[in-house]
Amino acid sequence: MSEEAQSVRFHTRKWVKPEDLNPNETLFGGSLLKWIDEEAVIYAIIQLENPKVVTKLISEINFITAPVQGDIIEMGLIATHFGKSSLTLRCEVRNKLTREPILSIDRLVFVNLGPDGKPAPHGKTEITYVKDRL
User: Fold this and answer.
1) Is the dihedral of CA 107, 13, 39, 17 positive or negative?
2) What end-to-end distance do the CA atoms of the chain give, in Å?
């Protein structure tokens, strides 16, 4: 499937609460990045069928708008490249109710690890869904 034909699938939703705010009373970027990294590594673990996956790289982060307290945001991910031992994802975050974009990251790279903790081939070449593996 070409990258253009792939659409980001939105899964996780977060409610912006007072403890997530910065002094400007908008969502603290560090909180959002933590949520994205956690969601993305879970996505990578499921795709690679291996709980031993680590974040290698997060490319330029484009903050587009700043959510405020009470906003509901959703994070979307799509696998864009399968390397020998890596998986590259694209991320988009948007406001759930208005669909207004909040953030985009072109590349998040995750590495599949073997039992020795070193990069290991994963043998995957395309996105699969759990329902198709059962």
Assistant:
1) positive
2) 22
For residue 67, the enclosing domain spans 9-133
**Count of alpha carbons within 13 angstroms of residue 120, beta-carbon side:** 14
Q: Which residues pair with 54 in a beta bridge?
A: 111
- Residue 6's pLDDT is 65
The pTM (predicted TM-score) of the whole model is 0.88
Lowest mean per-residue pLDDT among 3-12, 27-36, 80-89? 3-12
Provide the domain count of the chain: 1
70 within a domain of the structure (yes/no): yes
Q: Report how far residue 45's alpha carbon sits from residue 105's, in angstroms, rounded to the nearest whole number.
A: 19
The number of beta carbons lying within 10 Å of the beta carbon of residue 134 is 5
The β-bridge relationship of strands 72-82 and 86-95 is antiparallel
